[in-house]
Amino acid sequence: MDYEDAAQSANAISGEGGDATLKKIYESAKRNFTTHGYDRTSMESIALDAGVSKQILYYYFEGKSEIYNIVFNDMGVDAHREVFDFDFDALAPLSAIRALFEMSFESKQAGSRLPTAEAIRQGGCMIKKGSDLQRAGLKAAEIFKRIIERGQQDGTIRKDIDPVFVHVLTWLLHAGFLSSRDLLEKYIGTPLSGSEVSGNWKSFASDALISAIASEKGKAAL
Description:
The protein is mainly α. It has 12 helices and no strands. The chain folds into 2 domains: about 5-65, Homeodomain-like (Arc Repressor Mutant, subunit A), CATH 1.10.10.60; about 75-220, Tetracycline Repressor, domain 2 (Orthogonal Bundle).
């Protein structure tokens, strides 16, 4: 089964009906990847947890990477849902950027146990052109662009700020903390998974972002 066929099947997972066996495999894969990481998850562990044979698993998927790609895309789309439902136009531009940053951080943190290192190793090749996740990314970019342009028009955001830069910087500030948290905990010997640490990082990072893009007028209004 190729990626597009598998992805179409996976789209039925969150809806009514669909293939019950595929649903069990998907939920098993999601649990295994988020709990054990990509490298420590195997086709055997997914099959065992799903209560199916490896033969059934290979009927649907060619291998572990294919299942991971589908789970990654599905969780990525879910992470955008709250952002897309929020009315950022009701907030002043800098407040909207802060709300967008912090909301995105919270949604990514909720799904941060999905190992992103594998996605980085693959160079994002699991994000197919025209896929739901790519469309979500493009829609998020439009939201950033609209907010930045409003801020530039009212003078609260610097004229030289590129909306793409703000979007990319937001992603890097999120991913830098969430994807490196486990490594840093071991490196510095300090727990970083608590809500207080995450909250402090979210506040510090959003303050840094706002400070970087605000004009003098914008900073005076903060």
